[in-house]
Design brief:
The chain contains 1 helix and 6 strands; from the N terminus they run βββαβββ. It is largely without helices or strands and about 160 residues long.
């Protein structure tokens, strides 16, 4: 109680049988590249950290379902520390095909990968309070969306075929 994890060792990726991982409310700024080796993860909680990026192989975590919450990685206290929240998602993020609910609120997300529309299992998508200026054309592939929140971004248009 009261301990805030700020870094995970590279060897963390050796926990390949790990199914549930709860790291919410720590001070993680990044995840080791070996994080993509945790291919049996079913549940993952990373909200309320200080993540600035996700490993390129984050999309290897294809069993994560149904919910992934990366919200709260930008907090008012972090502004004093020149904290740079997650601004881009790795291209491999589009591999998370079983994802049903995704929330990335209150951060500095500026762009979505071009293949974001491959997440066609998404039912709920909350990208509130980011800095997104454009949505990729593949966004129209999210045909199962029932709830979409894009408020408080910098969008001026929606991609062609968005309907």
């Amino acid at each position: 109680y009261g301990v805030k994890i700020s870094k995970l060792p590279e060897s963390f990726g050796n926990l390949t049988k790990l199914r549930y991982l709860y790291l919410a409310g720590n001070q993680l700024t990044e995840l080791p590249e070996s994080f993509g080796n945790l291919v049996n993860l079913y549940g993952l909680s990373l909200e309320n950290n200080q993540l600035t990026k996700l490993p390129e192989n984050f999309g290897n975590l294809t069993n994560i379902l149904p919910t992934l919450d990366l919200s709260g990685n930008l907090r008012i206290t972090d502004l004093k520390l020149n904290f740079n929240p997650i601004s881009d998602l790795p291209v491999s993020f589009g591999n998370l095909a079983y994802l049903k609910n995704l929330s990335i609120q209150g951060g500095g997300l500026k762009a979505l990968p071009a293949n974001f529309g491959m997440l066609n299992g998404l039912i709920t998508l909350n990208l509130t309070a980011n800095q997104i200026q454009n949505l990729p054309n593949s966004f129209s592939g999210l045909t199962n969306l029932e709830t979409l929140n894009l408020s408080n971004n910098q969008l001026t248009t929606l991609p062609n075929g968005f309907s």
